[in-house]
């Protein structure tokens, strides 16, 4: 399967079995927790379709001008995969194995990771890869220490355009019927800024431990001591 974008020939091919994937560690110890928090609340709220995929630091591939390009966003939402999950254990190739990611999230760290790189020569920068090669609809960049959130969406010219938050500093994703915003608090012994989801009425989607705490409080209010 091939796509032509200007001077780039893009093909969607399976990763060769002998291809050596990069084994780079995450840039920051907080990144896995930030990523898992995004999936947790979606799962608990029943907002993950059966064949959706939310990879974390996982290679997403395309072959550009006959060269394999792999980027591993810190978190991504893929609405539907169309192959068994056992077929995507090493990497994911859009179009061949399922949908283009609807959105990708990158967490900025102290290490410059090129989240804004528009470099088009091989290997292309992240911004260029997501915008021009994959054509991911929404690109989210989050700076956890300061809680700074930027949301970019493809415009009619196929270029990322910075979006404006609503009055509650949240961004609406119509394809998911959800808002994304910044929340401050504690999870997994980390106190700071987090990305969180709100539903179409801007009701917060709860994490698993929050649901458990709410249920325990309801049981105690009814005179029932929950089992530990």
Derived from helix and strand composition plus strand pairing, the structural class reads alpha+beta
Sketch the major β-sheet.
5 strands, mixed
Unreliable stretches covering 5 or more consecutive residues: none
Mean pLDDT reading: 91
Report the β-strand fraction as a percent range: 25-35%
Measured between the Cα atoms of the first and last residue, the distance is: 54 Å
Instruction: Please work out how many helical segments DSSP would assign.
Output: 3
The counted number of beta strands is 12
Structure characterization notes:
This protein is an alpha+beta fold and 228 residues long. 16% of the residues lie in helices and 28% in strands. The protein is built from 3 helices and 12 strands, in the order ββαββββαββββββα. It has helices spanning 31-44, 126-134, 208-221; strands spanning 2-5, 8-11, 60-64, 67-71, 75-77, 103-107, 138-143, 148-154, 160-162, 171-173, 178-187, 190-198. The strands form 3 sheets. Strands 5-6-7-8-9 form a 5-stranded mixed β-sheet, sandwiched between helices. A 4-stranded antiparallel β-sheet has the order 1-2-3-4, with helices on one face. Strand 3 and strand 4 (67-71) form a beta hairpin. The longest helix has 14 residues, at 31-44. The model has no long low-confidence stretch (mean pLDDT 91).
Task: List the keywords.
228 residues; alpha+beta; 5-stranded mixed beta sheet; 4-stranded antiparallel beta sheet; 3 helices
Offer a concise description of the structure:
The chain has 228 residues and is an alpha+beta fold.
Note the topology.
Elements: E1 2-5, E2 8-11, H1 31-44, E3 60-64, E4 67-71, E5 75-77, E6 103-107, H2 126-134, E7 138-143, E8 148-154, E9 160-162, E10 171-173, E11 178-187, E12 190-198, H3 208-221
């Amino acid at each position: 399967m091939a796509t032509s974008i200007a001077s780039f020939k893009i093909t969607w091919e399976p990763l060769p079995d002998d291809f050596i994937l990069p084994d780079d560690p995450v840039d920051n110890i907080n990144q896995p927790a930030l990523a898992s928090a995004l999936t947790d609340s979606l799962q608990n709220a029943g907002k993950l379709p059966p064949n959706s995929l939310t990879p974390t630091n996982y290679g997403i591939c395309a072959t550009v001008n006959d060269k394999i390009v792999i980027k591993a966003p810190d978190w991504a939402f893929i609405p539907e995969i169309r192959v068994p999950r056992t077929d995507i254990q090493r990497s994911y190739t859009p179009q061949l194995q399922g949908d283009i990611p609807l959105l990708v999230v990158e967490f900025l760290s102290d290490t410059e990771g090129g989240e804004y790189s528009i470099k088009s020569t091989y290997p292309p920068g992240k911004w260029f890869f997501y915008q021009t090669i994959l054509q991911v609809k929404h690109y989210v960049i989050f700076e956890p220490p300061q809680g700074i959130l930027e949301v970019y969406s493809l415009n009619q010219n196929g270029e990322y355009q910075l979006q404006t938050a609503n009055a509650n500093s949240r961004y609406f994703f119509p394809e998911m019927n959800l808002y994304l915003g910044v929340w401050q608090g504690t999870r997994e012994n980390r106190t700071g800024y987090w990305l969180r989801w709100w539903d179409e009425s801007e009701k917060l989607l709860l994490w698993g431990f929050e649901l458990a705490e709410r249920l325990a409080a309801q049981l105690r209010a009814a005179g029932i001591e929950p089992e530990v």
